[in-house]
């Protein structure tokens, strides 16, 4: 028997996006401001008058240094979070609020509706502004903006230098860009007395705005947080947008874009565009989890669209609901602006784009996001890394797809990374080396192994350090703590999500990267020292990684377990079993992460073959807490080796 549920709740699951529960309810906390100065648009033309709708949370401090700009995605608006318990839900309630990562007790949070939108900021549904003495021809269409328009809540009277015609812009609204949106936001910042943002944060299209801000105004913010975004859209993503716009523009009720004031709007085309968009926001896994259990039991809702399967009911519901709160012309305008966005398709171009930026960066992607795939975030990270900008990057493991940035459980995963970046001192210096000396969010005691203590002793004060496979960041934290007051650049590379978070919470930059792919993000001689601690045996491309370490670093330090250690030999001889001992050897043969089984003698031979010099070396029997001298047969008696190497 088919289900008969018709409410939003019937479609909600653990993986539901906050966007699914948005409504056309009035934005009761919205404020508006008019800007009299015409806005010259990047692709030609101008808008004579601009109205900007925005919402704020928290209090701006005396020197306006605690302001955070939040930028929304295509279907979002200024209502990013609840203002009180009685307020309607916001699309980022899990991130914005008292005590949350974007803490409204600490920060003054500003979220404007974008230019071209339909929730209060100037867009296609607004009346044209014309000179007072101009005659508007064929102005039979009355002002009937979408019911969700918040123009009636304007806190600033409409300007009188020009008058509004009776004809909305409609499809004649000029083509705008992400840069034009940012320019309106810059005017809003000036109006609010904000000279520099503490942070600019955004996901998807909001991430595009954040990246556009820092590329256009390099000193505009202390921190840029770009989530589930890209330097430009893939051709596949462009294709989906083209189909969506065609669905709208070929709707019989589109009427050339001038459907305002009529009783027929292109709701069918807009609903189909939204349905298509929903599919791109989800991953295969998310769709299976959401719809497969009852795929043949659609929820019966009033709809003209096919509902043979449960996913059909869901898409019909979301598509139809979207038409009550969004304008078709705005969808066309915003999706086109997104498609035109292009910061660069090569690392060199992206390096040119971000070269002058003075902020630090947090870049977050999601493993199952095929609309804005992690590879596009890595393009940004690789460019920033090559420029030696402060950047932390995490690829969050999730089945939720692109929607993950709006899903509560995924917010709980990436939220601490946002919190770490924002909760650091607002006095953090802009110099990338000095910035690494700030007090970490996690100041728990650091516990080093004897091998790590040796590595620490081998690194001179002030040296820049890249730690490959940095774990929880304890070694980098120890280097920083030992050299407080000495400017130095510290960075980690890690692949385990929990370790990335732990390292970031220590206030140390870390990027999510698989060492088996080499170190293409880094340039030659970028660091004084590159460390590979207790990881040599776990990589598949040993020679290639050593070559990369010696390219990126002036020196390299490697530590590794010695598989010729006597206790291991005895296992083979006396027990006839795969060797096992404490530390890096403590695994069964079938679950060990160790791909290689190096000995000290083997590594010596390899380094000679590679024409690499050993500057220093030290050996330990960690199980006995005993240093093994070079003349005491370390290949037999040491279980751990530490070597400082370089290529002449």
Task: Please characterize this protein's 3D structure.
- By secondary structure, the protein is of the alpha/beta class.
- Among the domains are: 235-338, Rna Polymerase Sigma Factor, Chain: A; 431-646, Rossmann fold.
- The protein contains 18 helices and 22 strands.
- The strands form five sheets. It has an eight-stranded mixed beta sheet, sandwiched between helices. The protein has an eight-stranded mixed beta sheet with strand order 17-16-15-18-19-22-20-21, sandwiched between helices. Strands 2-3 form a two-stranded antiparallel sheet.
- α1 (178-192) crosses α2, α4 packs across α6 and α8 packs across α9.
- The longest helix is centred in the middle third of the chain and has 16 residues, at 408-423.
- It is elongated.
- The model is unreliable at 1-11, 133-157 and 426-439 (pLDDT under 50).
What's the topology here?
Elements (H helix, E strand, L loop, with lengths): L30 E5 L3 E2 L5 E2 L2 E8 L9 E5 L24 E2 L4 E2 L4 E5 L14 E5 L30 E7 L9 H15 L4 E7 L1 H12 L4 E7 L7 H15 L17 H15 L2 H8 L18 H14 L4 H13 L6 H8 L5 E7 L7 H13 L4 E6 L11 H16 L8 H4 L14 H9 L6 E4 L5 H9 L7 E5 L2 H9 L3 E4 L14 E7 L8 H11 E9 L4 H10 L24 H10 L3 E9 L4 E3 L5 H4 L2 E7 L2
Parallel strand pairs: 5-8, 5-11, 6-7, 11-12, 12-13, 13-14, 15-16, 15-18, 16-17, 18-19
Antiparallel strand pairs: 1-4, 2-3, 4-8, 9-10, 19-22, 20-21, 20-22
Overall outline: elongated
Mean pLDDT, to the nearest integer, reads 86
Compute the number of strand runs. Answer: 22
Structural class: alpha/beta
Q: Major sheet, described briefly?
A: 8 strands, mixed
The oligomerization state is single chain
Secondary-structure arrangement, i.e. CATH architecture of one domain: 3-Layer(aba) Sandwich
- Portion of residues in beta strands equals 15-25%
């Amino acid at each position: 028997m088919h289900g008969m549920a018709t409410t939003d709740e019937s479609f909600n699951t653990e993986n539901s996006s906050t966007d699914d529960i948005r409504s056309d309810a009035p934005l009761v906390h919205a404020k508006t401001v008019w800007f009299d100065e015409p806005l010259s648009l990047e692709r030609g033309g101008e808008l004579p008058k601009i109205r900007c709708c925005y919402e704020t949370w928290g209090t701006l401090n005396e020197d306006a240094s605690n302001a955070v700009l939040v930028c929304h995605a295509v279907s979002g608006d200024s209502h990013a979070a609840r203002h009180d318990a009685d307020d309607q839900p916001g699309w980022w309630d899990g991130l914005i609020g008292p005590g949350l990562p974007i803490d409204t007790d600490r920060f003054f949070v500003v979220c404007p509706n974008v230019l071209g939108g339909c929730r209060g900021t100037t867009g296609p549904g607004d009346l044209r502004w014309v000179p007072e003495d101009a005659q508007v021809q064929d102005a039979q269409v009355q002002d009937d903006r979408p019911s969700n328009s918040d123009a009636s809540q304007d806190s600033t009277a409409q300007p009188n230098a020009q008058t509004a015609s009776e004809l909305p812009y409609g499809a004649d609204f000029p083509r705008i860009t992400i840069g034009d949106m940012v320019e309106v936001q810059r005017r809003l910042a000036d109006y609010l007395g904000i000279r520099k943002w503490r942070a600019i944060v955004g996901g998807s299209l909001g991430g595009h705005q954040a990246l556009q801000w820092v590329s256009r105004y390099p000193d505009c913010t202390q921190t840029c947080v770009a989530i589930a975004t890209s330097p430009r859209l893939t051709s596949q993503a462009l294709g989906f947008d083209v189909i969506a716009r065609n669905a709208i523009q070929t709707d019989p009720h589109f009427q050339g874009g001038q459907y305002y004031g009529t009783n027929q709007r292109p709701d069918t085309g807009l609903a189909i565009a939204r349905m298509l968009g929903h599919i791109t926001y989800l991953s295969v896994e998310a769709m299976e989890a959401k719809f497969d259990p009852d795929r043949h039991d659609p929820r019966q809702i009033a709809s003209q669209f096919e509902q043979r399967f449960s996913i059909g009911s869901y898409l019909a519901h979301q598509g139809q609901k979207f038409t009550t709160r969004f304008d078709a012309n705005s969808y066309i305008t915003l999706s086109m602006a997104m498609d035109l966005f292009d910061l660069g398709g090569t690392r060199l171009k992206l390096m040119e784009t971000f070269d002058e930026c003075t902020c630090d960066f947090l870049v977050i992607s999601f493993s199952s996001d095929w609309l804005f795939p992690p590879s596009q975030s890595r393009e940004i990270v690789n460019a920033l890394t090559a420029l030696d900008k402060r950047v932390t990057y995490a690829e969050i493991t999730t089945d939720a797809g692109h929607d993950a940035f709006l899903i509560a459980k995924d917010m709980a995963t990436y939220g601490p990374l946002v919190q770490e970046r924002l909760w650091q001192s607002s006095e953090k210096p802009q110099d990338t080396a000095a910035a690494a000396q700030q007090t970490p969010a996690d100041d728990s005691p650091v516990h080093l192994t004897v091998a790590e203590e040796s590595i620490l002793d081998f690194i001179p004060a002030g040296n820049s350090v890249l730690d490959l496979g940095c774990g929880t960041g304890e070694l980098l934290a120890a280097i920083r703590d030992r050299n407080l007051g000495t400017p130095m650049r510290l960075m980690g590379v890690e692949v385990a999500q929990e370790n990335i978070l732990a390292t970031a919470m220590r206030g140390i930059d870390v990027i999510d990267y698989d060492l088996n792919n080499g170190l293409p993000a880094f340039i030659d001689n970028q660091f004084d020292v590159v460390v590979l601690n207790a990881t040599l045996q776990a990589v598949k491309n040993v020679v290639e990684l050593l070559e990369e370490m010696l390219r990126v670093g002036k020196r390299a330090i490697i530590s590794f377990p010695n598989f010729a250690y006597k206790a291991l030999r005895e296992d083979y001889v006396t027990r006839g079993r795969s060797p096992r001992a404490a530390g890096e050897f403590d695994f069964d043969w079938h679950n060990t992460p160790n791909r290689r089984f190096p000995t000290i003698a083997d590594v010596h031979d390899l380094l000679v073959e590679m024409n690499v010099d050993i500057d220093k070396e030290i050996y330990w029997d960690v199980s006995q807490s005993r240093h093994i001298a070079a003349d005491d047969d370390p290949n037999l008696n040491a279980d751990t080796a530490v070597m400082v190497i370089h290529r002449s």
